[in-house]
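Next comes one such specimen:
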Amino acid sequence: MKTVLKISNLNTNEDVISIREVVGSNEGVIACEVSLSKKEVNIVYDDKSVTIDKIIAEVEELGYSIN
């Protein structure tokens, strides 16, 4: 599966690193690309191993707002 998440409060390189780390730590995430300029995260994942809802919940736990 491939998903794009828009994150309204993605503002710094530290945000990019934090999001990349939390998304990438999930088993089943194949690729994760965070774009600071577009304020979005492109995720390729195996939906048999992880759900997008779990990924979203983890990103929101860090304090980010997903549109």
Summary: The chain has a mean pLDDT of 97. The chain is about 35% helix and 25% strand.
